[in-house]
UniProtKB/TrEMBL annotation:
Pfam family, one: BKACE
Membrane-crossing segments per the record: none
Species for this entry: Azorhizobium oxalatiphilum
Domain of life: Bacteria
Protein name: 3-keto-5-aminohexanoate cleavage protein
The protein's required cofactors: Zn(2+)
Keywords: Metal-binding, Transferase, Zinc
Alphabetized GO MF terms: 3-keto-5-aminohexanoate cleavage activity; metal ion binding
InterPro entries: Aldolase_TIM (IPR013785), BKACE (IPR008567)
Gene3D superfamilies, alphabetized: Aldolase class I
Length: 310
């Protein structure tokens, strides 16, 4: 793993996992996404991981026009690195998933490194009522759903976005995804440094155990040596302890309402900024310095905000 002097905090603002009925704090329109993203950046997030939502009902959207409702405002309001998803919403085609990043040419984009069962259906079983008619079916369909990220899809996504100078947050939900990333390196599709986002606790991916984090790091160390920067994402209630452990091991961290709706046990987060503030406080108590957006750009070799298409 690459030795880093400062810890990058990424904040995943809204995502496509949680639905409007799950939390009143979840940003589900452009005004809310912009306001919460800027506040998260001011709280200490160097990278903003962004999905778009349909203005009418808060459903996941791949339309660049929906992104443009908030991206210029975020760019005017802070200097954080914008990271646009290529995972999109569950059930989107690859064309849809790549559309926003291909159109808007961000500094950074997410890139899922393998196919997996992606189960959200247990959440539907816990919900008593839904605000929007699409929510229940969206969650329940994942009982028979595979999030597809084949080698051909990965190759296409990396190739198309690299042509714009975009670099990647490589999302690895299991150990095999690290080997898929090593394949991409062997194929000379990408060059270091690699931001490797290890994801724990999604139903269908690797479990949220400390031993699993250590194992993922050992495998990544063997495959990539000092060419990669580790970042850790813990889903739901596992967020704080796993990302803290990742930081102690010398990595970076990701928080945000995409990943967890809670601030602590039994306490719902009121905003993305609240999670960032908590994480920054923990890092400071551990005598770890938090990276600025410009630090993150230097650490990851990014092209700069002036070279995006928004």
């Amino acid at each position: 793993m690459k030795r880093i002097d400062k810890v990058i905090i990424s904040c995943a603002i809204t995502g496509s996992i949680h639905t409007p009925s799950m939390s009143d704090a979840l940003p589900v329109n452009a005004d809310q996404i912009a306001e919460q993203a800027i506040a998260a950046a001011k709280a200490g997030a160097a990278i903003l991981h962004l999905h778009a939502r349909n203005e009418a009902d808060g459903a996941p959207s791949s339309d660049p026009a929906d992104y443009m409702r908030f991206l210029p405002r975020i760019k005017d309001g802070c200097d954080a690195v914008v990271n646009i998803t290529t995972g999109g919403g569950l059930g989107m085609s690859l064309d849809q998933r790549l559309l926003a990043a291909n159109t808007l040419k961000p500094e950074l984009a997410s890139m899922n490194m393998g196919s997996l069962n992606f189960g959200l259906f247990p959440a539907a079983e816990k919900m008593k009522a839904f605000k929007q008619p699409w929510e229940k079916g969206y969650l329940e369909m994942t009982r028979d759903f595979i999030l597809s990220n084949t080698f051909a899809q990965i190759e296409r996504g990396i190739g198309e976005l690299s042509a714009h100078g975009t670099r990647f947050e490589f999302e690895c939900y299991d150990v095999g995804h690290l080997y898929n990333l090593a394949w991409a390196v062997d194929q000379k599709l990408i060059k270091p440094p690699f931001l490797v986002q290890c994801i724990f606790g999604v139903l269908g991916g690797i479990g949220p155990d400390a031993e699993n984090l250590m194992h993922m790091k050992r495998v990544a160390d063997g495959l990539f040596g000092s060419d990669y920067i580790l970042s850790v994402l813990g889903a739901g209630r596992h967020q704080t302890r796993l990302v803290t452990m990742g930081a102690i091991l010398g990595g970076c961290v990701r928080v945000g309402l995409e990943d967890s709706l809670h601030l602590g046990k039994g306490v719902m987060a009121r905003s993305n900024a609240e999670q960032v503030e908590k994480m920054k406080r923990i890092l400071t108590e551990l005598s770890l310095e938090v990276a600025s957006p410009d630090d993150a750009r230097a650490m990851l070799g990014l092209k700069g905000a002036d070279k995006t298409a928004f």
